[in-house]
Amino acid sequence: MLELLFLLLPVAAAYGWFMGRNSVRNEDRREQEEFSRQYVTGLNLLLSDQPDKAVDLFIQLLDVDTDTLETHWTLGKLFRRRGEVDRAIKIHQNLTSRPTISERQRRLAMFELGLDYLAAGIFDRAEEMLVAMQNDKEFAEPCQRYLLELYESTHEWDKAIKVALKLARHDASAEPLVAQLYCELASLQDDPEYSEKYYQKARKHEPDNVRAALALGRMWYEQGAHSKAQKILTGILDADPAFISEALPILQACYESQNDDAGFIQFLHKCVSEANSTTAAMLLSEAIAKTSSIEEAEQFMQSALLRNPTMKGFHQLMDFHIRAADVGRARDSLQMLQRLVQHQLQQRPKYRCRHCGFAGSTLYWHCPSCRVWGEIKPITGLDGD
Ligand SMILES: [Zn+2]
Questions:
Q1: Which parts of the sequence bind Fe cation (predicted)?
Q2: pTM summary value
């Protein structure tokens, strides 16, 4: 209701000026009477608790001139923010059609109208407005940012890439975004040749892009190019150590297919020392149990847990204790405890967005909550890896 009062101010001012003129022609008198009638109707609607109708009427009464222009901009934005997009559209459409406003103000109204359509989900009209405005120097960058938002909503990745490339020409920080968009396009291809081509393009724009490395590693492994897959996947440890646990299952298969167990053990040690990876420590402990003894594996897991305590690692340690224990009550209790820990682990999210804190058990590259790209990573620490 407060906003309505401030909407009334310019209308009331206009009313006072209109009524206070000394010499009034007949034509003006009729206009005055009409204005008075509508003003009173608006007030009545407001008093009879019909603010929606009152707002529409007051907007009609607001003539666009230099005095009320600011009110139009503020009201337009206010309505859009409140989700009353149809009203915002009315205001901005009204502005674009007024011959009295300057060219710059007309363009600003077109830009605002584009944002109204975007907020209303009328994507074709929003696109039309924003595309037309992106050649205007003053509006180019914001138009491109909103167009990106639009193409992300409509999943038109090829169009999104074109816009992001324009942004990256002036702003190198947009390069990782270009890479993510190429990954998105790659993931939708049926032909592996095209998938590979787009993932490679992603890596050109962001050489450390983990998403492309993981996808190419998987693809090459499935095609039988094990050594090539191994090379790109081991690179993830330097590119972003938080993701190495994601690559370890395929890496294990790559090393195994080349009968290089020693190479894999060496790499796992590197993952433990450089990335504190619990998954790597668990795989190492299993290798120790296989080649030496359960006791040695237990000792290794204990020292790994002292360096990096995690629930996952604790679960693995309990597993060794159970395997070494004699059949009896102690072993039953351990098994029950392990099941409890297992249950807790299944309840915990695996990934968290570093931008907004959104957490879940699926790895999204585009955060469903804050819409930021590449900020969701595997959780580390007690509940994570
Ligand atoms: Zn987020």
A1: 353, 356, 367, 370
A2: 0.80
